[in-house]
């Protein structure tokens, strides 16, 4: 195919979905993965033939290998991969179980690393790799130790991966969203009124005075995927309205 292909993990909702829509509009061939049947069905309905939707569990190495083989068959190579799949949540240190720890690291760290490993042979010279990390890695938050540790593992990988893959011209960067209004808030179990109050409280702590939208992150990822960022690698771009400096 003449269009450049991009894989987005966790691409059926929130930030991943917004990024898929934007890159598709910009002319890329986009492949997204997801594991929630409802969000997969909604994505397939809304995307139609514009974007390929594949069911895959981010924690499964076998699923990553299957996705890579599907991309090889349909597209031959990849211009970029946005490793965005992940889970979040707040757990006080005294409540964390061994199963919690394993689940977060399996999905947020192991899954993203082995997805990259699976698609690495498909990455063309000059390709771009982008990880989703999160501002929680840079700012302490009560109950955020496990999710921040699992996401922070990705951030720790970025410089080494950037150096290792540089001889092929492959760039490796991270994007760290601040407070973003996504469907994940609706899955928290809080009533809609409580979610609104939380988001308003977050907005009050952001210098730019608002929480972000998925499109704010999508625009940054689109830049990191584009040739306009061809001299940027090994970096973590914080997109949080200045919350990390307040």
TrEMBL record:
<feature type="domain" description="Ketoreductase">
    <location>
        <begin position="4"/>
        <end position="178"/>
    </location>
</feature>
<dbReference type="InterPro" id="IPR036291">
    <property type="entry name" value="NAD(P)-bd_dom_sf"/>
</dbReference>
<dbReference type="Pfam" id="PF13561">
    <property type="entry name" value="adh_short_C2"/>
</dbReference>
<protein>
    <submittedName>
        <fullName>Short-chain dehydrogenase</fullName>
    </submittedName>
</protein>
<dbReference type="InterPro" id="IPR057326">
    <property type="entry name" value="KR_dom"/>
</dbReference>
<dbReference type="InterPro" id="IPR051122">
    <property type="entry name" value="SDR_DHRS6-like"/>
</dbReference>
<dbReference type="GO" id="GO:0016491">
    <property type="term" value="F:oxidoreductase activity"/>
</dbReference>
<dbReference type="InterPro" id="IPR002347">
    <property type="entry name" value="SDR_fam"/>
</dbReference>
<comment type="similarity">
    <text>Belongs to the short-chain dehydrogenases/reductases (SDR) family.</text>
</comment>
<keyword id="KW-0560">Oxidoreductase</keyword>
